[in-house]
Specification:
The protein is α/β, with parallel strands linked by helices. It has helices at about 10-30, 45-60, 75-85, 105-110, 125-130, 140-150, 170-180, 195-200, 245-250, 260-280; strands at about 5, 35-40, 65-70, 95, 160-165, 185-190, 205, 225-230, 230-235, 240, 255. It has two domains: about 30-115, Leucine Dehydrogenase, chain A, domain 1 (Rossmann fold, 3-Layer(aba) Sandwich), CATH 3.40.50.10860; about 140-260, NAD(P)-binding Rossmann-like Domain (Rossmann fold, 3-Layer(aba) Sandwich). The chain has a six-stranded parallel β-sheet with strand order 1-11-8-7-5-6. Strands 3-2-4 form a three-stranded parallel β-sheet, sandwiched between helices. Strands 9-10 form a two-stranded antiparallel ribbon. Helix 2 (about 45-60) links the parallel strand 2 and strand 3 (about 65-70). Helix 1 (about 10-30) packs parallel to helix 10 (about 260-280), helix 2 crosses helix 10 and helix 6 (about 140-150) crosses helix 10 (about 260-280). The radius of gyration is 19 Å and the shape is globular. The N and C termini lie far apart (about 40 Å). The relative contact order is 0.17. The structure holds nicotinamide-adenine-dinucleotide. Nicotinamide-adenine-dinucleotide binds near residues 166 and 266. Nicotinamide-adenine-dinucleotide (NAD) binds near residues 195 and 208.
Length: about 290
């Protein structure tokens, strides 16, 4: 079997076109969704992520602004800024780019963002609602993965989903979302024994580790759906995933590539969340 590729770049383009139309309609109603991104320090990867977010927002007509703060910003200063953004009626979504300098506690920052403006979906209230299946902002990468599966009408109910990685931003929430869709979920992590045996039983295998090509074809069951979240930079500068794509694709039924896989979907779902925030705060239905 050679897998069908789920191209996140193409799907993102389609979704952004749909969002552009929606934003145009909202603008006619006098509402321009606005995302404010806060960047603290000079981390080059963070700078490039932020640029990507601004560019994608502009493509859909969402307005965005970037607040850049020095690496020596104190926690109190950042929390004060977030409070001001919480109260600013022209700001619908607030995103503080992670990681933050060590003098600032990430959890304090996340908890200070108003849950109605939490477009990253990291606030404990958003996470709690996601767990109980209530309507809320879903964290962007897991939301993107679910959207990719649904775009191909891949059955989730009753399937065995194995998640490799248990971070708060990817592994844990994607497992919860798949559980909400009635999958049977197994979480694996760095302390898991018999990882290959467990992974090779998965109908849906999600790799979110951060180790290039750690998941070889031996970890993939014939016909499995393989989602590669990993972004790893090789010595030659190119990006690659956690999955040995070339060999795994010969066994999988569907597979996501890196690049052009989950990455573009993450940004796209941030835009979806920003529109949702704008409509929610303005009490526009639909
Ligand atoms: P993390 O470092 O917070 O978590 C990695 C997880 O992998 C941990 O739970 C750890 O237990 C597990 N792990 C580590 N070594 C393992 C091993 N040998 N066997 C099994 N499990 C192991 O990382 P993260 O933030 O969840 O990100 C994971 C990867 O996904 C990274 O490459 C990151 O760059 C990428 N990522 C991509 C997107 C995207 O939009 N595509 C978004 C977020 C993260």
């Amino acid at each position: 079997m050679t897998a069908e590729i789920i191209n996140g770049k193409e799907l993102s383009t389609e979704l952004k076109l749909e969002m552009k139309e929606e934003v145009e309609k909202l603008k006619e109603l006098g509402l321009t969704p606005h995302l404010t991104v806060v960047l603290v320090g000079e981390n080059p990867a963070s700078k490039s992520y932020v640029k990507g977010k601004e560019k994608a927002a502009a493509e859909t007509g969402i307005s965005s602004s970037l607040i850049e703060l020095s690496a020596s910003t104190s926690e109190a200063e950042l929390l004060q800024l977030i409070q001001e953004l919480n109260e600013d009626k022209t700001v619908h979504g607030i995103l503080v780019q992670l990681p933050l300098p060590e003098q600032i506690r990430e959890e304090k920052v996340i908890e200070t963002i108003h849950p109605n403006k939490d477009v990253d979906g990291f606030h404990p209230i958003s996470i709690g609602k996601m767990m109980t299946g209530e309507d809320t902002f879903l964290p962007c990468t897991p939301y993107g993965i679910i959207t990719m599966l649904k775009s191909k009408d891949i059955e989730i109910e009753g399937k065995h989903a194995v998640i490799i990685g248990r971070s708060n931003i990817v592994g844990k929430p994607i497992g919860q979302l798949l559980l909400n869709e009635n999958a049977t979920v197994t979480y694996c992590h760095s302390r898991t024994k018999n990882l290959q045996e467990i992974a090779s039983n998965a109908d849906i295998l999600i790799a979110a580790i951060g180790r290039a090509h750690a998941i070889t074809a031996e970890y993939v069951k014939e016909g499995a759906v393989v989602i590669d979240v990993g972004i790893n930079r090789l010595e030659n500068g190119s990006l690659t995933g956690d999955v040995d794509f070339e060999n795994a694709k010969e066994k999988a039924s569907y597979i996501t590539p890196v690049p052009r896989g989950v990455g573009p979907m993450t940004i796209t779902m941030l835009l979806k969340n920003t529109i949702k925030a704008a409509k929610g705060l303005s009490k526009i239905e639909g």
